[in-house]
Design brief:
Blueprint lengths: L44 H12 L11 E2 L2 H10 L7 E5 L5 H8 L3 E6 L2 H10 L6 E5 L7 H14 L7 E6 L5 H8 L6 E9 H7 L11 H9 E9 L4 E2 L6 E8 L12 H12 L6 H4 L6 H10 L13 H13 L1
Parallel strand pairs: 2-3, 2-5, 3-4, 5-6
Antiparallel strand pairs: 1-8, 6-9, 7-9
Bound molecules: S-adenosylmethionine.
The site of S-adenosylmethionine has 24 residues, from strand 1, helix 3 and strand 3.
Family: Belongs to the class I-like SAM-binding methyltransferase superfamily. rRNA adenine N(6)-methyltransferase family.
EC number: 2.1.1.-
Keywords: Methyltransferase, RNA-binding, rRNA processing, S-adenosyl-L-methionine, Transferase
């Protein structure tokens, strides 16, 4: 394994390195916003991250989406956006060198960190060996059943009298598992109140889309809006990561709905998602054609009419509420 000292940016002895990444740039379009939060802690992740990687001779692995956060103020903002307080229980996916973990623990949270890379899991375990408020699982998050881990963590806090009914998720995740993470976490409103993720900027903008007539509108948007209220918070320019990715990132919050607040679909959620997926099947067909295998085109036209939607409606023109109404009318037909 080659020594990383040659490939990493130099570590300056000063506490504010000259090469320190710039703060986030202003919002780049009408759908984005920049959040300004004063950084109060003096923790320098630029140093901590590079030292941790150097100490292990670790070359960041592309396949694991290892782009480490170098800017502690971004980590501070993630924690602040999630409003992490003393006594909170937080799930962190992919702690890496532990730069975000450090701020979460510092804020008083008990953290469950799930890290796929055994070297990074060992590193983060070692780094936080002196605290009992961090549990590290070396697992692939996409294959891991986190319910039982989270429930036992919440219960143990409860027994100690530190009641935290809901946990939170705060993570800088590898971009390539964004959809899996969202699919797994958003229906877990009984465990998590809020999911705060650092995502690829393009994905972030796509995920918060609840409007119509864009080619980016997909069943995942219906899914996201069914289970949560998503909000694009602020953009994080690529210069803040090591190694630098080819794209910018952004922070998105998903406020999870409770089961009682889910849209009132008259069948099972899986049948509803089958209707939504069928609607989007093929190349942007009209609904009366794409839903033909569920019921006749006449019945769909009638349902569209009763829902107050044009007979020529296409899936990307429907909001979550439109889909719920149409689905309920189709089921009745
Ligand atoms: C983008 S890095 C973020 C690291 C750290 N949180 C930071 O902000 O610097 C993503 C981390 O997720 C880990 N990872 C990649 N795939 C994973 C998976 N399927 N499950 C859990 N961790 C994963 C990587 O090894 C890496 O440590």
């Amino acid at each position: 394994m080659p020594c990383l000292l040659h490939s990493l940016p130099p570590i300056s002895p000063s506490t504010t390195p000259k090469t320190r990444p710039k703060p986030p740039l202003p919002a780049h379009n009408s759908r984005t916003r920049t959040l300004h939060i004063t950084c109060t802690r003096s923790q320098d992740d630029f140093h901590a991250t590079l030292k941790a990687l150097n100490s292990r001779n670790r070359t960041p692995r592309k396949s694991l989406g290892q782009h480490y956060m170098l800017n502690s103020s971004i980590n501070e903002q993630l924690v602040s956006v999630a409003d992490v307080k003393d006594g909170d229980v937080v799930l962190e996916i992919g702690p890496g060198t532990g730069s975000l973990t450090n701020i979460l623990v510092d804020a008083g949270a008990t953290v469950l960190a799930i890290e796929k890379d055994p070297h990074m899991a060992a590193l983060v375990r070692e780094r936080f060996a002196s605290t009992d408020r961090l549990k590290v699982l070396q697992e692939d998050f996409t294959k891991c059943h986190i319910n039982s881990h989270m429930l036992s963590l919440l219960e143990s806090r409860d027994l100690l009298g530190q009641k935290s009914r809901f946990a939170k998720v705060v993570s800088n995740i590898p971009f390539n598992i964004s959809t899996d993470v969202v699919r797994q976490l958003l229906p877990m409103g009984d465990i998590f109140s809020e999911v705060v993720l650092l995502l690829q900027d393009e994905t972030a903008m796509r995920f918060v889309e609840s409007s119509l007539r864009t080619s980016e509108y997909r069943p995942i948007n219906i899914f996201i809006n069914f289970y949560s209220d998503p909000e694009y918070k602020f953009k994080v320019p690529r210069e803040n990561f090591f190694p630098q990715p080819n794209v910018d990132a952004a922070v998105v919050t998903f406020k999870l709905k409770q089961t009682a607040d889910y849209p009132p679909v008259s069948t099972t959620k899986s049948f509803f998602s089958m209707v939504v997926n069928s609607a989007f099947n093929g190349k942007r067909k009209m609904l009366r054609r794409s839903l033909q295998h569920i019921c006749t085109s006449l019945e769909i036209e009638e349902a569209l009419g009763n829902a107050g939607l044009p007979a020529t409606s296409r899936p990307e023109e429907l909001t979550l509420d439109d889909f719920v109404r149409l689905h309920n009318l189709i089921v009745k037909a």
